[in-house]
Amino acid sequence: MRVKAIAFDGHGVIYHRPRRVIDVLLDYLEEKGLTIDREEAESLYLSLQREAFVGQMSSKEMIQRFCDMLALRSFEEELLEVFQKASAAIELEPGLREVLERLRRCGLIIGMITNSVHPVSIKRAWLRQHGMEDLFDVILSSADEAVCKPSVEIFRRFASRLSLAPEEIVFVGHDEKEIKGAKAAGMVTVCFRCKEKIADFCITSLKELLELSRTLTTIDQEGNPQI
User: Fold this and answer.
1) How many CB atoms lie within 10 A of CB 19?
2) Nearest-CA neighbor of 98 among 209, 3, 190, 2?
């Protein structure tokens, strides 16, 4: 079975942020003269983020609850603005456009499967700012889908959205749990700078996908890449 699409993780593969969003938020509050227990605040933020990942609240509601629980209601509006700006401050992986353009010329469908508190419309807005939105045929955000990686469900939904079998899709990720989820769903897996070799292929730069693409389009009857 020939591979017909490649799905990328968002943060950690397609882009990264120079600073964690929670660090930006806490630094802002401290600059305002507030004394914050950073460990407690980060733990709360991550807990709320996990709920927002699966659509139990919007990103705005997440910040509202964060402010409520830390008695910061007077800072809610400005903290939401800081949060939105920090979230949008993405830096694309070097060479991304060249890689995606060449993969598309090979006839591959390009997508993204991302765990996020933001809906797809926001993700596309970020990509649009970098002139990259047109290179992604389909994006799935956990916030919209109410399910997040490493659940096999979100990988299967991606395949269904494209009317493809999971075996016809390559997932490129950096998180070991997510790689295992994609593999359990039946996808071919590529590990991007992973510490452990748990995927079908391992790469250290996205440009290596261009060489791999020749192999990735030849799959045996059991769905295994032919090397």
Assistant:
1) 10
2) 209
Q: Which two tokens stand for residue 174?
A: 């950096």
Encode pLDDT of 93-123 as tens digits: 999 999 999 999 989 999 999 999 999 999 9
Q: What is the pLDDT of residues 147-188, one digit of tens each?
A: 999 999 999 999 999 999 999 999 999 999 999 999 999 999
- The strand pairing partners of 203, in sequence order, are 192
Q: What is the dihedral of CA 194, 23, 95, 173, to 10 degrees?
A: 30
What whole-number distance in Å separates Cα of residue 119 and Cα of residue 45?
A: 18
Q: State the pTM of this model.
A: 0.91
- CA separation for the pair 187, 200 (Å, rounded): 10
Instruction: Specify the amino acid at residue 205.
Output: S
